[in-house]
Amino acid sequence: EAVRTAAFRCIMLCHALIEFLWCGAQLFLVDLFGVHGLSPSKVATAQAMGSVAAVVATVTAGLCIDRLSAHGKRWVLVAATASGAAAALALIYCTNMALACAATALLGTMMGPLDVVFATLYADSFGRKHLASILGLVSTLSYIAIGASPVVYGAVRDRSGSFAPLLGSLVLLLPLAAAWIDLPVLASHGSP
Q1: Which H or E run includes 112?
Q2: Given a cut of 70, is residue 90 above it in pLDDT?
Q3: What digits encode the pLDDT tens for the residues 170-188?
Q4: d(CA 114, CA 61)
Q5: What angle in degrees, to the nearest 10, is found between the helix axes of 6-27 and 97-111?
Q6: Cα dist. 15→21, 83, 95, 140 in Å?
Q7: Rounded distance, CA 65 to CA 121, Å?
Q8: Coil, strand, or helix at residue 25?
Q9: 159-183: buried (b, 16+ CB within 10 Å) or exposed (e) per residue?
């Protein structure tokens, strides 16, 4: 029943877009930053900032998420997708080490709370009766997005000479997908 709702499709789309952005950015990080003259060692340093941001965001989400309503969790998802959109923008215009660190930190704050938010958001929004099926479907779509990511990133780069067209589209798609989420009332989907 959850699969038939617009909320489920929007949440799943957010999940897939975030995984798509994350995977492609991680695989092509040296290329993304190398275009602007950053060496692989500087890229690695910037990536460390992203890892720190992800740890902080994960711990913060873990400590706070149970205190939030489903709609509060929705806003955490909106913030994470906005962080992803900002990261994509920063990746396009990254011209120095400070922007590289900012881009990877934004990627980290996007990915950090992902598992915590999605695990609780699906349960709170659609109940626990079919949670395993819901998470199985979402995981499948996420793995498809992860698998498609390097192919799409590479094809865009080969055709246009830049990742900017793809990243620019993600700047628009991520916040739109999150903004359209209208969470259902849990009572209509069974008890938790």
Answers
A1: none
A2: yes
A3: 988 888 877 776 655 444 4
A4: 9
A5: 140
A6: 10, 13, 29, 11
A7: 9
A8: helix
A9: eeeebbebbeebbebbbebbeebeb
